[in-house]
Amino acid sequence: MTAIIDQAIREMERKQRWQHVAEQMEQTRREDPQAWADYLAESELVQGPPPRSTRTAPEWEGLITFPEERDEGDPGRDLAR
Q1: Are 66 and 55 in contact (CB under 8 A)?
Q2: Which residue ranges are recorded for the region named Disordered (predicted)?
């Protein structure tokens, strides 16, 4: 029984800690746009640029053209690939 309670406490503390981090990040974004821009730039240096689309796996990136990305004049453009 004690193990279950200990696990629940650890989980609650973990959730509270990440909630606090999220609140601090949101406060920085709102109140200090320059610091937020610096954070995003540094994050991109470390992690690389964000994926062009979150709808595909990285290994498929650039191989699929979604309807919203197609040229209006060439509806079958991606079929030739």
Answers
A1: yes
A2: 46-81
Per-residue confidence at 12, pLDDT binned at 50, 70, 90?
very high
C-alpha to C-alpha distance for 56 and 37, rounded to whole angstroms:
27
Q: Is 22 in contact with 15 (CB distance < 8 Å)?
A: no
The model's pLDDT over 44-79, given as tens digits with 9 standing for 90+, comes to: 999 887 766 566 677 777 777 766 666 665 555 444
Q: Count of alpha carbons within 13 Å of 80, Cβ hemisphere only?
A: 5
- b/e 41-73 (16+ beta carbons within 10 angstroms → b): eeeeeeeeeeeeeeeeeeeeeeeeeeeeeeeee
56-62 long-range contacts, CB within 8 A, separation 24+: none
Q: How many residues does the chain have?
A: 81
Q: Kindly state the DSSP code that residue 65 receives in the 8-state scheme.
A: -
